[in-house]
Write a structure and sequence with these properties.
38% of the residues lie in helices and 24% in strands. It is built from 10 helices and 10 strands. Strands 6-7-8-3-9-10 form a 6-stranded mixed sheet, with helices on both faces. Strands 2-1-4-5 form a 4-stranded antiparallel sheet, covered by helices on one side. A hairpin with a 2-residue loop joins strand 9 and strand 10 (222-227). The longest helix is centred in the middle third of the chain and has 14 residues, at 149-162. The chain binds adenosine-5'-diphosphate (ADP) and magnesium ion. The site of magnesium ion (MG) has 2 residues, from helix 1.
């Protein structure tokens, strides 16, 4: 069997005695698309924080391509090929779409390279491909700040792809998007899977259904259940934790 791309083994994260993650184990295979759902406070964002090195687990293992990531800085983990999109898209509002993508593809080492327009041809070609792919080519010279919320989300995703990560982590990528933008985002993410391993955290169940990927349900920092959305949705344990949330 192929080697897992990412293996989280019995990870716990304690914030002053409160366990945001509790003996969490999740394995991702190369090229896999995985949806993660769960009520507010389930530990979804903390799970990404552990993978990206923002939060250090109190115990457990995090292995990427067979090597431990524990103790590595966020920068080092990003360089190893793990990219993340935060809940609020991070783009440079005062730069145009093209420049945003160029900087993502070939990060500026200093203020001078930030100002200069010299971009290697291979980077330029890659950036144009990605820009067309997310439908932003007509906006190449538009300031990122002038884009719609949906277009900013795509720019943020495109910026991630421009960094060529093997593992792409998306935290609530369709929050605040229109239905049409949400549908397009689902198509985009399905296209990315295969070439990349993609983890998507989302509340929007229509969107999760569109992704048509295995679903992991988190609750109180642990895996409650895993499976196809249709099965997971009808699982009494899952219904109970979501009902508990809507009543509170
Ligand atoms: P989700 O993304 O599933 O809504 P989070 O991972 O953000 O959940 O949070 C899980 C739990 O851990 C929540 O109860 C949250 O309040 C708590 N938590 C997250 N980060 C911290 C922190 N830095 N300090 C203390 N508690 C935190
Ligand atoms: Mg969250």
């Amino acid at each position: 069997m192929a080697q897992p791309l990412l293996e989280i083994q019995d990870v716990s994260v304690s914030f002053d005695g409160f366990f945001a993650l509790k003996d969490l184990s999740i394995t991702l295979m190369p090229g896999e698309l995985r949806s993660i759902i769960g009520p507010n406070g389930a530990g979804k964002t903390t799970f990404l924080d552990v993978i990206t090195g923002k939060v250090r687990p109190s115990k457990g293992g995090v292995q990427f391509k067979g090597s431990s990531l524990i103790g590595f800085s966020e920068q080092k983990i990003a360089r190893l090929g793990i990219g993340r999109k935060f809940q609020t898209p991070r783009v440079y509002d005062n730069l145009d779409v093209l420049r945003n993508l160029e900087l993502a593809a070939a990060p500026a080492k200093n203020a001078f390279s930030l100002m200069s327009n010299k971009v290697p041809t291979d980077v330029r070609d890659r950036v144009h491909t990605i820009m067309s792919y997310v439908g932003l080519a007509p906006y190449a010279r538009s300031l990122a700040g002038s884009l719609s919320h949906g277009q900013k989300q795509w720019l943020a995703i495109a910026s991630l792809v421009a960094q060529s990560p093997e593992l792409i982590l998306l935290d609530e990528p369709v929050a605040g998007l229109t239905d049409e933008e949400t549908n397009r985002t689902a198509e985009l993410i399905k296209d990315l899977a295969g070439d990349h391993t993609v983890v998507v955290i989302e509340h929007d169940m229509e969107f999760i259904r569109d992704l048509n990927a295995p679903v992991t349900v988190l609750h109180q920092g642990s895996v409650l259940t895993e499976g196809r959305l249709e099965d997971v949705k009808n699982d009494p344990k899952v219904i109970e934790v979501y009902l508990g949330q809507s009543q509170s």
